[in-house]
Design a protein that fits this description.
The chain has about 170 residues and is mostly beta strands. The protein folds into three domains: about 25 residues; about 60 residues, SH3 type barrels (Roll); about 55 residues, Roll (SH3 type barrels). It is built from two helices and 14 strands, in the order ααββββββββββββββ. The strands form four sheets. Strands 6-5-4-1-7 form a five-stranded antiparallel beta sheet, with no helix packed on it. Strands 13-12-11-8-14 form a five-stranded antiparallel beta sheet, with no helix packed on it.
Amino acid sequence: MYATAVFRLRLLTASLLCLACATPAHATGIGEDSKLPLPRFVSLRSQEVNVRTGPGTRYPIRVVFKKQAYPVKITDEFDYWRKITDDADNEGWVHKNMLTAKRTAVVTGAEQVARNDPEPNSAPLFRVEPGVIGTLKACGVQMCRLEIEGLKGWVPKQSLWGVLPGEVFE
């Protein structure tokens, strides 16, 4: 009788294992990766975002980002979690609900001149201090159009964190 019970338990275990392997990932809630290209830029949805050492709430908080709309680069995905990096190389995992697809960029380096057209020598419109965050409206090969507090102008792409070097979009 004992051998029969052990056999049935092993058979049940094997059957459950086969069933688990045959169940589609979307039915189990696993595999919620976006399938979007990596790396890519997004921005922080909230004023305060906990960045963890691993993809889950059981992992300790490494750093807290405290600037809504700040651009971050997604470098990896696991289920509902995204591994992100900021312009200071702070890296960790956040839940995807803490991110938004809204494209923003932060000015880095020296003060920049926002221009009327995407040509480096076009008419200057206003100056932008380092650390200022703007909404990305378009990017060409060398210049990106930013909107900052209602003002729109083109700034050099290499002076921005929030856009990939070869990225072009309207």
